[in-house]
Amino acid sequence: MNKGPAASHARRGPLQQGRSSDEEDRPVALVLRPLGLGDLLTGVPAIRAVRAAVPDHRLVLATTAALEPLARLIDAVDEMLPARELEPLDWTGPPPALAVDLHGKGPASHVVVADLAPDRLLTFDSPGFPGPRWCPDEHEVHRWCRLVSEGLGVPADPDALDLTVPGAPPPVSGAAVVHPGAAFPGRRWPPERFAAVARRLADTGHDVRITGGPAEVALARVVAVGAGLAPESVLAGRTSPLELAAVVAAARVVVSGDTGIAHLATAYRRPSVVLFGPVSPALWGPPPRPQHVVLWHGDGTGDPWGTELDPALARITVSDVTAALDGLLARVDDCPSVTRSAHSPPSAP
Length: 349
Fold this sequence. Notes:
The chain has 349 residues and is α/β, with parallel strands linked by helices. The chain contains 13 helices and 10 strands. The chain has helices at residues 21-25, 37-42, 44-53, 68-71, 107-114, 140-152, 191-203, 217-227, 241-249, 260-267, 281-284, 311-314, 318-334, and strands at 28-32, 58-63, 79-82, 98-101, 120-122, 176-179, 208-210, 253-257, 272-275, 292-295. The strands form 2 sheets. A 5-stranded parallel β-sheet has the order 3-2-1-4-5, with helices on both faces. It has a 5-stranded parallel β-sheet with strand order 7-6-8-9-10, sandwiched between helices. The radius of gyration is 21 Å and the shape is globular.
């Protein structure tokens, strides 16, 4: 590890106030991860490994304001710093003792943490930033674990993905969660197929709820109508991030594409069927656990930011999904211990 360039672009701004003098005296380890929900959750094992490497440090996670409520469920994090992708950080106080770039592989993100002039800087190798080698075909979880393990000399457990369960009760427990949305059209399975799956779940006695963000309310309603569900089955746009996490943590099963809620199902070890298209599950899929089923008919050559349905995702049929659900739920019913967490932190107060 080498110290990066001198501070030049870091903006001075307030961290959270009200820390005790003991906290102020602790050295700081800053970790940069200002991306989407799936990115945050796949970075959790690496964040925990940073904590293990510097247990006496105050660990500050620089992430987006939208993710802050969920980031607080990571038991390794002491404090949040609002961050925007590839923009200077609003940092105050002396340079951190350690800064770790869990954002990207090149100088554009490396400089964001290097500009804080940390005593130690950990990034992947790129011009002007010596570090561990970036491997393009590595699973996202393993990639960041390896960075921390090689850079800080500590073991990193890629299965340490669990989040604390939110303290507030979920709006609904035991639901079959169907999440039809994804950030880009290339990763959105057709809504009429999600509706057919939701109808099958409802017909077999499950309490089906359709989830999504505020921008996905219309999509969720289309799925609910197509499945013959009542309007109150639509949770899209009606749950906060913490409420959505609580719903997933208490879910009977989750069905989704390759998107953030699939990683929430992993974080809470809930049974899930995840539909992959342009991106291989070898890069972004759940860990090999009996409660997670992956469906994929691709070769990894698709465009994850595509504006049209990816052909590999289109090849997944309703029958593929319902058969996967039948097998998964039968397995869970026969052996309930498959959903028991080995790592789960306690519920938040």
